[in-house]
Design goal:
Strand content: 5-15%
Number of helices: 12
Largest sheet: 5 strands, mixed
Shape: elongated
CATH superfamily of the largest domain: HprK N-terminal domain-like
CATH topology of the largest domain: Udp-n-acetylmuramoylalanyl-d-glutamate--2,6- Diaminopimelate Ligase, Chain: A, domain 1
Structural class: alpha/beta
Number of strands: 10
């Protein structure tokens, strides 16, 4: 929740006699602060998102004004407001063209208008909005990372229009997703909160998990689901995984005790892993492929680019090693679950599988 430049211009253009000359495409950028700048060498102090005001006191040529605008664009200022009528009496067409081409909103304000009045109004509203945002993020943090749901946090969110029946998207990722309404760090991950209608599946250069929450009192559960989906995205090396798509991994995540997961998987998988380590084979992966393809030797052979007779021989060796024939559905399911447990423990507790003999 932040204010865009468009919000302020629409609200105050009459009062301060603001005229927009260019840069309409950049109007909806967020505004972080208002900065009065007379020395164009000071643009290095900008942090991004500022509306920069200048009277042009130190700008004595068209080239200098263009260089000033270019410097603001490089520093990601959200707009340029020229206080005209004294030092600046004419706006060069080259500046208007530059601002249009680079989506840098350009405005003028008459000299008779007090810059301090505009700055006071804008900065006060930005400060109030930051305080509100801080309160909202604190409430979301309580609900995401602790259970049961904090009633005071729910009440605060309701006061600011966050309705419990609305649909929120929760993401978990190593890096914050820029488009998230809020992004909260926890245990080396970022949990993104997307308000209703704000999530889009735009590709990102990192993987993330996502889930849907229709009840703010269930945000703790949603954050766990997003985390689990994120782990599966890493396991499968996929850019995005929805919690609804994680399948049998749900069963694994429903067992929070690592010792129980080890007890369910180690007796089944240890013989394979130890054999592979000793003989430099990959029976572990072959058995998994075999089961994933409905015990079809031909399908497994196609995946590993190996003659089906060779694969059939190796499957026979695996059955002998494990003393298992995989004729029963129950036995196949046990091994399928064990493989999924292996994936999760490899991502969360890799030491479990180390030093197998």
């Amino acid at each position: 929740m932040s204010y865009s430049l468009h919000y302020f211009i629409r609200k105050t253009s009459t009062r301060y006699q603001l005229t927009q000359l260019a840069g309409n495409a950049g109007l909806h950028a967020d505004i972080s602060w208002v900065y009065l700048m007379e020395d164009i060498e000071n643009t290095d102090f900008l942090r991004g998102g500022e509306l920069v005001i200048t009277t042009g006191m130190s700008i004595h040529s068209e080239q200098t004004l263009l260089a000033f605008a270019a410097s603001l664009k490089r520093k990601q200022a959200c707009g340029l407001l020229l206080n005209v009528g004294h030092y600046i009496t004419k706006i060069p067409l080259s500046l208007i063209s530059y601002c249009d081409e680079n989506s840098l909103p350009l405005f003028t304000m008459p000299w008779k208008i007090h810059i301090a009045d505009l700055m006071e109004q804008y900065c006060n509203e930005i400060t109030i909005q930051r305080n509100i945002r801080s309160q909202i993020e604190s409430a979301f943090e309580k609900l995401l990372f602790s259970s049961p749901a904090d009633e005071s946090a729910l009440a605060l969110l309701a006061r600011y229009g966050c309705q419990t029946g609305d649909t929120y998207h929760i993401t978990a990722s190593r890096d914050p997703i820029p488009s998230a309404t809020h992004s909260l760090p926890m245990n080396d991950l970022y949990y993104g909160i997307f308000f209703p209608g704000e999530f889009s599946d735009t590709p990102h250069p990192f993987s993330y998990g996502i889930t849907v929450c229709n009840d703010l009192s269930s945000l703790y559960t949603a954050h766990r689901q997003a985390y689990e989906a994120y782990l599966v995205s890493r396991i499968k090396n996929q850019p995005v995984v929805s919690y609804e798509e994680i399948g049998l991994y749900r069963t694994v995540f429903s067992i929070p005790d690592t010792s129980s997961l080890i007890a369910l998987s180690m007796p089944l998988l240890r013989p394979l892993l130890s054999y592979d380590k000793k003989h430099h084979t990959d029976y572990f992966s072959l058995l998994r492929l075999y089961l994933e393809h409905g015990k079809s030797v031909q399908a497994a052979a196609k995946v590993v680019y190996t003659h089906r007779n060779t694969v059939n021989y190796r499957i026979g060796k695996i059955k002998e090693l494990l003393a298992a024939d995989f004729d029963s559905l129950a036995q196949c399911c046990e091994y399928e679950l064990a493989f999924h447990i292996y994936d999760v423990l490899s991502a969360t507790a890799p030491e479990v599988w180390e030093n197998l003999s």
